[in-house]
Amino acid sequence: VPFTKTWALTALSGSIGYGQIETSLRDRPAEEYNTFVANLIAARQVNQTTEVELEASRELTDQTSDFDSRFEDFVFDLEQTSAVEVTAIRLGVGKDFGGTARLDLGFFGNRSDYLDTGAEEDVIGADVNYRRPITGQLTTTMAARYEYQTFSQDDSDDELLRVSAGLEFRLNPQLDVISRVGFEQRTSEEVS
Predict the structure, then answer these.
(1) pLDDT tens per residue, range 88-114
(2) CA quadruple 131, 105, 12, 8: dihedral, nearest 10
(3) Are 117 and 82 in contact (CB under 8 A)?
(4) CB atoms within 10 A of CB 127
(5) Does residue 83 sit in helix, strand or coil?
(6) pTM for this prediction
C-alpha cells in the first residue's frame, strides 16, 4: 500500500505491505517465510540550498547461489535459494552551492538476517559525494565511502574504504561518457 503526503517544506512517502518467499536449500525441504515489509522516506527542505532525507526500509528478499557438480561426464547444475530479511536506515544531507556545485553526505546502517541459516550481517558507514560542473557539458565528480561490516557466521569484521574521482561528459540528453579512477581497500579480521 503506497502513500504520499506533502507539506510546504516536508514530504513523506513510502509503502507498507506483506512479503512472502519460499526458499530451497540443497539439503533441506523448501520453507516459506512471511513478514511485514515497508519503506518510508521523509524529506525536509531546510533552506533554499539544503535538504535532509531520512529513509528506512524492511525487505524480504532471497539470495540465490548456483554451482555445478561434475561426476565423470555428467554435470549437475544445482541452485540454492535462501531467504534474507534486510532492515536498513539512511540519513542524508544535500547542499547545493548555487548551481555551481553539489555536496551530498550520508550515514547508513543495515542488518541482513539470513533466515535459513541464522547468520547475521551488519553494516554501518558514511559516504560523501561532490559534483562540480566545469562547463555546460563537463562535470567533475569526487566520492568517498567507509563501511564497517560484521558477520555473525564466522565472527569476523571487515572495514572497506573507497575513494574515486572522475569526469562526466554529456554528449546529448540521452548519452553521457563517464571516466572514473578509484581506490578500494578492504581490511578483514576474524574476531577471537
Answers:
(1) 999 999 999 987 899 999 999 999 988
(2) -70
(3) yes
(4) 17
(5) strand
(6) 0.79
